[in-house]
Amino acid sequence: MDIFIEQIIVKKPDIPNILLKIALVAVTAVVCGIFLAAAIMFAGISFITVIALAAIPGVIWLGVHFFKSLIVEYEYILTNNELELDKITGKSRRKNMVTLNLQNAERFGIYSDNVSFNEFNADVTVSAHDNTRLNMWYLLVKDGTLGRVVVLFNPNDDFVIRLNKSLPLKVRNNTITERARVKEWS
Fold first, then answer.
1. CA separation for the pair 87, 71 (Å, rounded)
2. pTM of the full predicted structure?
């Protein structure tokens, strides 16, 4: 039986991201104000007025474009034994972060403060989580090119259950099996 599931999560903005958005809006407003003031001051010189007024929509467009680029989403795609993680910025630009063969998985579990990064001994860490630290999971996979890769992500219950079925038996997480049974009984 083929397994396919995908999930998109939105990364919650952190404090630096929020401050950057505020600064971006402020800079956009100030630059538009400067162009508007220039258009009013040089109203007698039509060439400067036209350029200043024509620049305002461009500045607003750039501000909106940069603002949208600060919106980050992650997409998890599970196809049989392959997990693909993509980063989507501005709801339009997609970049593949990593594609992993789950047959090479070494560990899988719920990420908490009790889990130490030192015990993973990973060469690469892929963060594709929503910044809330709620329902966060880790997956450690040995990749032929990247070495040991640890992924931190927020899959929903259905995704976790199907991902668990794609993992080697020695790596499967019993917590998920119990969660699935409870879900079936309710």
1. 10
2. 0.79
